[in-house]
Amino acid sequence: MKGQKRIRDYGIKIGELEPGRLNAITDIQGIRVGHQTMDHDSAKTGVTVVIPSSENIFKNKLMAACNITNGFGKSIGTVQIEELGTLETPIAMTNTMSTGIVTDALVQYMLESNPDIGLETGTVNPVVCECNDGNLNHIRKSNVKQKNLYDAIGNAEVEFFEGDVGAGKGMRCLGLKGGIGTSSRILQFEGKPYHVGALVLSNFGALRDLVIDGIPAGRIILNQTEVKDQPIKEQGSIITLIATDIPMTERQLKRVAKRASVGIIRTGGYIASGSGEIAFAFTTANPVPHEMKSDMIEIRMLHEDNLNLVFRAVADTVEESILNSMVCAKTTVGRDGNTAISLGEYMEAILKFR
Amino acid sequence: MKGQKRIRDYGIKIGELEPGRLNAITDIQGIRVGHQTMDHDSAKTGVTVVIPSSENIFKNKLMAACNITNGFGKSIGTVQIEELGTLETPIAMTNTMSTGIVTDALVQYMLESNPDIGLETGTVNPVVCECNDGNLNHIRKSNVKQKNLYDAIGNAEVEFFEGDVGAGKGMRCLGLKGGIGTSSRILQFEGKPYHVGALVLSNFGALRDLVIDGIPAGRIILNQTEVKDQPIKEQGSIITLIATDIPMTERQLKRVAKRASVGIIRTGGYIASGSGEIAFAFTTANPVPHEMKSDMIEIRMLHEDNLNLVFRAVADTVEESILNSMVCAKTTVGRDGNTAISLGEYMEAILKFR
Amino acid sequence: MKGQKRIRDYGIKIGELEPGRLNAITDIQGIRVGHQTMDHDSAKTGVTVVIPSSENIFKNKLMAACNITNGFGKSIGTVQIEELGTLETPIAMTNTMSTGIVTDALVQYMLESNPDIGLETGTVNPVVCECNDGNLNHIRKSNVKQKNLYDAIGNAEVEFFEGDVGAGKGMRCLGLKGGIGTSSRILQFEGKPYHVGALVLSNFGALRDLVIDGIPAGRIILNQTEVKDQPIKEQGSIITLIATDIPMTERQLKRVAKRASVGIIRTGGYIASGSGEIAFAFTTANPVPHEMKSDMIEIRMLHEDNLNLVFRAVADTVEESILNSMVCAKTTVGRDGNTAISLGEYMEAILKFR
Amino acid sequence: MKGQKRIRDYGIKIGELEPGRLNAITDIQGIRVGHQTMDHDSAKTGVTVVIPSSENIFKNKLMAACNITNGFGKSIGTVQIEELGTLETPIAMTNTMSTGIVTDALVQYMLESNPDIGLETGTVNPVVCECNDGNLNHIRKSNVKQKNLYDAIGNAEVEFFEGDVGAGKGMRCLGLKGGIGTSSRILQFEGKPYHVGALVLSNFGALRDLVIDGIPAGRIILNQTEVKDQPIKEQGSIITLIATDIPMTERQLKRVAKRASVGIIRTGGYIASGSGEIAFAFTTANPVPHEMKSDMIEIRMLHEDNLNLVFRAVADTVEESILNSMVCAKTTVGRDGNTAISLGEYMEAILKFR
């Protein structure tokens, strides 16, 4: 989007399903994405928010689930989603050390837009995710402030940048530059189009493992260039958000979230010990009212036999999102001269091997 | 039922809600319970089945969940219920060593009533639960045969015996005789009556811990009689089934199943290491068709704010079910002269302490 | 401690095991507890920290586990403990809206004491727990600041106050005043004394359910006084910390954490929908070095058959901790005149029923 | 082994680590594998057992964990392993409908070799896994008998056949013939060799997804031959066993089991809805005595920073095991003429694309 050259623009098509209009998580009606990027001196970090709905999400919660493939991470808000099956705030992403500040800001934001929270009604469950950008970003200097979360929310739009933006500014992925990436697919049920969209904050893996649609791109880069695989502990992580407008129950959404792993592993992940891998899935189809207007709520769920199509869409969109996060990111020099090269630099060499 | 003197007949009322017509799990429309009891020589065991629906349950599955508070147990079928959220067979209960045979019989029973299983369609997930009745029953002699499961199914009825019957024949509970017990409550939503019913196979705990509606019955018995608390490892377990006709999602049913612990702990349980505690919850309100007739299924769920009433009903019915399982059971002499005395023997002494 | 009248001082002894020297979580060598209490105008809140070790806990992590009985809560840090089985920071407790700020402060505190975090080594997993004190405390005004966490740490000591202090200042429990409480037990293994200690932040339940060592105290209070049970949604929660010096593996510690429920339910809890119930367990016996000095680590575990004794100690200390949290707390008038009466006011009336 | 042509014999090497002597799970000292194969008329099924130790495994349990990526399956014994962290019987594998009979036989086998079970001591937790071989095998006819489990145990040896043997006789994998496969790797810690071994029962996936070490083998076969991808629901499953002699705790073993997914997904799996994916991991390094000879047990665990090497070994051995299960299996014609072709038929065509 926004004129960036994405992996599909290199001729790489993941899977058999068609992408949505933008090939982005924002193809699901009502979703917007906003970045606040910090890029000065040794500060290479930021905040990215996903606004999941055009309505007051605290009053009209979205059915949601999360799946923790590897819990080596500090993401906040998973416990209550697991229990209550609803998302009631925007989802914020930032660096590992800034989850506290961003959580505080997100709570303030929710208080401002809901004067009843904490007085006439209960509290609110902020969802804040993180990856460790400490290789490029001087993460000990608490660069992120409450204001940055508000800025990211203010910047939210349907068409948004990918790569080294927002929370993705300082991330590394599979030995190269990582960050924010997205993708979507269209599915047909009952003769109508539905959507599955993914958005990742990619920060995992080793270069020698990088695979692009089956091409051993990492080994090609290592063989053809001077680049060396970093002997660092694979301390990275990946946050995956899956959104859909298909009606599902919380249990089905958990199954959906679990399939994020397929896309991650296809690109070269192996769920390394330090690679926190947390995925969220939510649907806009079964809103859950905060206030009880009637004892029961009418919802719909997809017949289980239809899930395989959804699972393929999840695997494909996550795989493509990771590749987009890498190919859209520019080469970045961070603290102490640490450098992460853009995948874009190597695409020509890689594509020769198709 | 069937003329047995239940805990309520002693003037003990658990909680504030009213029981259903039979004060039994069978107050939920369509449920039946059947026993096959073995009682000869050192064989003190049997099979109990809960038929959850009057329809073909494989074709019209019931939404279900299970919760494992303590997994020291050999119950079968929990894994798929957790994943798919549906119950597709009757639930059978027996002794620990007989789960294999009963599973085999239950699969055969399902094959006979569904000629498509394994040929035109997939397989079936039998649910078989167990407790260890090895103190009274000579569990090494494989007393239970495939036929016994069929007999238990054949015996299923709406009004059924509690206590030392079926799978409950050889169970001990809180130092006395345990077995099968049940109870139910009526709740009002949308101006209409709904039901919560429990059924337990009780086989846990130590006498000194027994509490009856707040009365320290175990300590009273130990003080007033010659009975000694058994220095056995508390190796028992308890299986709890919760049925309801309230519309819920699988996630909500899991929350319901988790509250079985409240009733168990109120009677004196402390989740001993050897006390496998597994609970299932299912609703008859949201049937899930095996075959896909349409892409989507319409279901309903209770608003979360209504759950506390349900949770109280679960706690109360499980507590009362355990007490019924004990007070309805007759004193039983098993293998090697091992004896479990009926709670009924002590009720007079206990009630003086009210 | 510190001259407060605790439940045992009223003649109530929970269980058969002997308490440790202080009958507190600090009976485990190396543990200290600190409070920072805010008590002005409508601010009735604060921070409590448990310092789990006298050493640098990031460098010498403690084996730990957590158990989430009810995930309706915003506690932070559980995900990584579940994955890695180690505790690497003090545990902080505060009100629901202040978890972000306290998390941020705890991260800063860890950065200051560990200059390598985020540069030469990875990140750190702060553990911050919460209950909603919004009935007494004006929780929308972000009363807690980063400084308060530092103050609570600075105040940490072996003998500490219970009741309406620190994070407990604004909590309600079982219709009365709740807060911080603690208790401990001594166990013998290998002929040597070991300890189990609990600390709770109590904020759950309804008055009519209150039970004190089997006495239906809640119903007594409602019958004997003008007090009315509050028709509020039972929105409270309870945080439980279990510490021990008994050698265990992470799996065993998870089993230990799960038994917190027993103590909670004995006092009248029923795991209400809004009652977030999260327990942590850690042992000081198997320290895990952050840096790898050798490929393997020697540890010890308790034989599983010994766990029942530990489980009884957990149930008893949690039960006693809750009662201590209530009886040590003074009657508190909070925002809008909301009032929580001390259990101490009713102890005389209750004890007549023994 | 036994003269079969394995994937490595085609020049395909998975990963960078060296295999053990046999490149099999039996490279871990004490492990043996036995098959009983049924191959007549429409019976294409059997039993495979993994004997995990040369000692009495009930008396000297092995530390173990399991991970359920997709619980659409009927495997038995996972619940207690999750709770107690020990394996106390051989692991048996068979078809979905025969788990009951094989469980019963395995319990009998354990009773015979342990006269105290059920009398002086507690019960035993059989582990029986399954996949649905109903496409080739007439699964409704209960072909497997108790005797077959005994035969499989009797046949156990260190060198064993792979492919269409034992429980693998009727399995399909990635559109071709599946079955039993194995592989191992050697790792160095403390200057000494340790082993990681895998064994799979493969029965999942669609032909078009098959990938062999990065080669899109499925698409090659579909393009080059008359073979058609079956429009069947991907109803298959995969059971993975990981064995090691590296000292680990139960938590670490769970992390190990979770990495089975990496190997599965690399070969073309996407965790289809019907693909039950259950993995077990156990170590021979920390035996746990059934009887308590002392209060504490000394064990060792790997430093967490060493786990990445183990995780790579798991991913690689599972990937290679799946490929071995396919390439060692002969083309099999089953019930109603249903046919699964051996991967071996296509290896020449596939290898041209390297």
Unreliable stretches covering 5 or more consecutive residues of chain A: none
Number of alpha- plus pi-helical segments of chain A: 8
Based on CA inertia axes, which overall geometry of chain A fits? globular
Query: Which structural category fits the helices and strands of chain A?
Result: alpha+beta
Please provide the count of β strands of chain A: 15
Short account of what is shown:
4 copies of one chain form a homotetramer. Chain A is an alpha+beta fold and 354 residues long. Helix content of chain A is 23%, strand content 28%.
Describe the model.
Four copies of one chain form a homotetramer. The first copy, chain A, is α+β, with helices and mostly antiparallel strands and 354 residues long. Chain A has one domain (7-292, 299-351): L-amino peptidase D-ALA esterase/amidase. Chain A is built from eight helices and 15 strands. Chain A has helices at 78-84, 99-113, 146-154, 217-224, 250-258, 260-266, 307-327, 347-351; strands spanning 32-40, 43-51, 60-70, 86-87, 91-95, 127-131, 172-173, 176-177, 179-189, 192-203, 237-244, 277-289, 296-302, 332-333, 339-340. In chain A, the strands form four sheets. In chain A, strands 4-3-12-11-10-9 form a six-stranded mixed beta sheet, with helices on both faces. In chain A, a hairpin with a 2-residue loop joins strand 9 (179-189) and strand 10. The two termini of chain A are 25 Å apart. The model of chain A has no long low-confidence stretch (mean pLDDT 96). The interface between A and C is large, with 47 and 47 residues.
